[in-house]
Amino acid sequence: MLSNLRICAVSHQTISSVHINNICCYKVRASLKRLKPHVPLGRNYSSLPGLIGNDIKSLHSIINPPIAKIRNIGIMAHIDAGKTTTTERILYYSGYTRSLGDVDDGDTVTDFMAQERERGITIQSAAVTFDWKGYRVNLIDTPGHVDFTLEVERCLRVLDGAVAIFDASAGVEAQTLTVWRQADKHNIPRICFLNKMDKTGASFKYAVESIREKLKAKPLLLQLPIGEAKTFKGVVDVVTKEKLLWNSNSNDGKDFERKPLLEMSDPELLKETTEARNALIEQVADMDDEFADLVLEEFSENFDLLPAEKLQTAIHRVTVAQTAVPVLCGSALKNKGIQPLLDAVTVYLPSPEERNYEFLQWYKDDLCALAFKVLHDKQRGPLVFMRIYSGTIKPQLAIHNVNGNCTERISRLLLPFADQHVEIPSLTAGNIALTVGLKHTATGDTIVSSKSSALAAARRAEREGEKKHRQNNEAERVLLAGVEIPEPVFFCTIEPPSVSKQPDLEHALKCLQREDPSLKVRLDPDSGQTVLCGMGELHIEIIHDRIKREYGLETYLGPLQVAYRETILNSVRATDTLDRTLGDKRHLVTVEVEARPTETSSVTPVIEYAESISEGLLKVSKEAIESGIHSACLQGPLLGSPVQDVAITVYSLTIHPGTSTTMISACVSRCVQKALKKADKQVLEPLMNLEVTVARDYLSPVLADLAQRRGNIQEIQTRQDNKVVIGFVPLADIMGYSTVLRTLTSGSATFALELSTYQAMNSQDQNTLLNRRSGLT
């Protein structure tokens, strides 16, 4: 093996090592003259990327495997279900790391940020590439915390399959529901892995039942556990009727034995497995007609004769069709059940060619890729993660950004092998790449080979749309494929240590915003302060910490404030005239508008025009009018918060010839503000979904505390020995709740929050808030 490490001969390539930003980077350079032996630094591989035993593959087969052999998967779950630990074990067993990292020790591959290692949580999604039994797997470990839900959203956007991990003692939890809904939205086939089968209170039956009831999914039991909690020692493969037992003396879980179940040695287990296999065959036959025909024709009398390969193929089809989810179990921390999970990923989850992307027909073989994540590296600059849907990417390739309408050049192309980055000569469709040199590309941008390629694709999409008698906006949406960014719920002011550091702070925030689109930065027009808007307390705290560590700025944060909204309760009309003379030019606009509440919820104002306004006038001034209305609704009359659920109707508009569009926009904006001030106003506050998991003994004090926080309890469920309190609570009353909950329950309870909706405040609470904001209380 040492000779393999020393001889880095991969198709006449030299491998040198560069230490960049705490990540060891392998750089592969073509060298036709000689090969330099070199022992890699940092984390050691048990074998080099692409080297299996003494088999040296060509670089092309390592970098560009057949598309049918590629799996792009994500690991998703509730916080603390074991995503990062599972990823760490996967990398170890696939031969890409020499030692088993631990979240508690802060030495895992995918949690490389200082903040992640200190807190023991995943903050940024991390991509790793590895090989398993001839398959190339691009794996993304995603965060479980609700503050970083955008990370999950933008990763699922580019994946072909996902592994949903569950804590076997808790089953489906709050954030599990959120990530499951996100996967549903992007039509992602899934496998379920019931982790922590060794944990006290673990229950295979309960976890499977919670998947069936809460996720409304159809679980296919491909494995049964041998023992639970402290007695857990292995699993039974239901498909092949074999038992997999891990050696109790083995420290790393690499040694396990696979034995067929026999009547002599395991009569009870064999009976249970046979019943489970027969139930599985019937379940799959109900969902797959091809498999049902096969079973009825050849194996209806004896299911035992049905070959495992036929059953696996049918399970693959129903998984890809998302009619059912395979369920496996194990314990990542105790190194049990990970190798069968990897086998299941390659057997049951789809390859890129099995996913039906409609827009691929418009691009033919031209390049089409989606930038789904940006990282900033101090030495290399922005690193852009891309999913390639068609075509090929090469270094020094000029690419066209459809969203930004600009052309850029890729300087280098990398593959993330565990925590090493390998420079590569090209990458084909179906892969996930890391590109260097793109200065303007952001999350959600569509990348094509040239502007003409994008136009040609748009024309093909338009023709296709005409054939199917539908609007072209669907085609346009796919061409400009993006990621939905949630609205922030918290904000606070941020100030640099001195005025001279303001440009440095602006640069840091610009870089962080490009990395994390859910972070919004705006300037307060009254005070001139910079305001940070984020998804939660932890989100803001992490951003503050990163500014300090990565950019060396000791910034000061103001108190956290809740992002309120405003609306109106009745219809009002207002008229305004703007008459200005600038130089020798007279600008004169008179406008009459009506503001009224809408019946349906709408974040942006609904804009309508009266029939009396001529088409010609609208043609030249519509953009300016709508710009004025939108700017007026950004700041409401009560708190200066955005106004929602309003409809604005323009009843009359008179414009003097030669009046600039800026003046039209300013007049409309002033008129709308006047109307909003005249109306009866209402403050809307963010209402959060709350789920508290608490021991029975502490239930009463937790409920009493929630009652004081204006909480509305919906139901109290039983989960093993714990109680789960589900309800709604206003965000303003839940700030700092984690400390209070720890105190009330001696640190035993956990909770999860998620934005539900915005609700109207009652008049007493609204007056208290307004008095506090104006300094009267």
UniProtKB/TrEMBL annotation:
Q: Which InterPro entries match?
A: EF-G-like_DII (IPR053905), EFG2 (IPR030851), EFG_II (IPR041095), EFG_III (IPR009022), EFG_III/V (IPR035647), EFG_V (IPR035649), EFG_V-like (IPR000640), G_TR_CS (IPR031157)
Specify which residues bind GTP according to the UniProt entry for this protein.
Answer: 77-84, 141-145, 195-198
What GO terms fall under cellular component here? mitochondrial matrix
Catalytic activity reads: GTP + H2O = GDP + phosphate + H(+)
Molecular function (GO) terms for this protein are: GTP binding; GTPase activity
- Which Gene3D superfamilies would you find in this protein's record? 3.30.230.10, 3.30.70.240, Elongation Factor G (Translational Gtpase), domain 3 (3.30.70.870), P-loop containing nucleotide triphosphate hydrolases (3.40.50.300), Translation factors (2.40.30.10)
Q: Where in the cell?
A: Mitochondrion
What family classification does the UniProt entry report for this protein?
A: Belongs to the TRAFAC class translation factor GTPase superfamily. Classic translation factor GTPase family. EF-G/EF-2 subfamily.
What is the protein name stated in its UniProt record?
Ribosome-releasing factor 2, mitochondrial
Lineage start? Eukaryota, Metazoa, Chordata, Craniata, Vertebrata
